[in-house]
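Data's thin. Show one?
=====
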Amino acid sequence: MALIATTKTELKNGKEIVFRTILSSDAETFLNFRKQVPLESTHTMQYVGMKLPSIDEVTIRLTKQLDDKVLVNVGAFDQDRLVGYLNFRPWAVDHPWTLHLAEFGMMVLKEYWGLGIAKKLLDIQDAHARSIGVTRIEALVRTKNERAIKIYERNGFKIEGTRKRAANINNELNDEYFIAKILDDPSIHWRPPYLETERLILRPVKLSDAEAIFEYAKNPAVSEYILWEPHQSVEDSLSYIQDYIFDYYKKGVPEPFGIALKENPEKLIGTVGCFVVSKVSKSMELAYALAENHWGQGLMTEAAVAVMDYCFKEFGLKRIQARCKVENIGSRRVMEKAGMTFEGTLKSAQFHRGRFWDMHYLAKVAE
């Protein structure tokens, strides 16, 4: 069984959870976990009255599994108590045609639902899969398990089919979805590169960034002067990624990069990108958004400069423009500090939220 790096995460309720490999010394808490799961849900393969192995048998099994470099049992621990579990395993052992395939099962105790444990377990699974060359991960999920389906879809899994009458639970036949995730999905033909500045990492946006984007995009102050409305749910942020960002990526357009601090590159604090204004005129437009608690620190200017430098060189541009509502004084300052020159104000140039707005236009032109 592969060993994963131990990490700690603070949940939404303030509790600190440790994520690590389940070891032979965890046999007792592992069995207690398996006894508790069927009392709370019929959506797993655990059932009340199921004959479980002894502590000694579990200890031996977990010890033997340490020799398997593909299989991994990831545990979420609240102190010494196992509260979440993901089992990642090869689809077929040593078959040359299926070395890129794996499957998994995941369970979380009910009192810990909705706190981010499932997402963290799936992120750990993705990292492990990539490290061993697995590019497709599969699972089965009951069609009635709507909560789990949402979690999986947010994390990049797609429903590929339905197994009719797949489980007979309490004399009721249940269908199951066959779901799969293709890592580095080829349907997204292009992604922007990783860029590094003094304080920031600018990187491609991923489906798993939806919660971080929602964290700042739900704030009305962030969208006060721009053209999108505050996000009302994580689903809004997920749709933004799937329907807006990925659509641009498929066209080879860097709209946008995700912005993250170097000390926490997995958590986005904003976005910045350029979209095409005119291919013939070799011009693009800069657009951005940043979490309110990071305003006034020069981060947006730092990110904008890096993205414009990249776009001028990568796309052979002559001009990058930007625009903002006249009232958006802070945004104009960002543009000017990033090297843009004020070109003028268009009167009543934008109709938005029931009124017309005057718009400032700024630009940077290649020498």
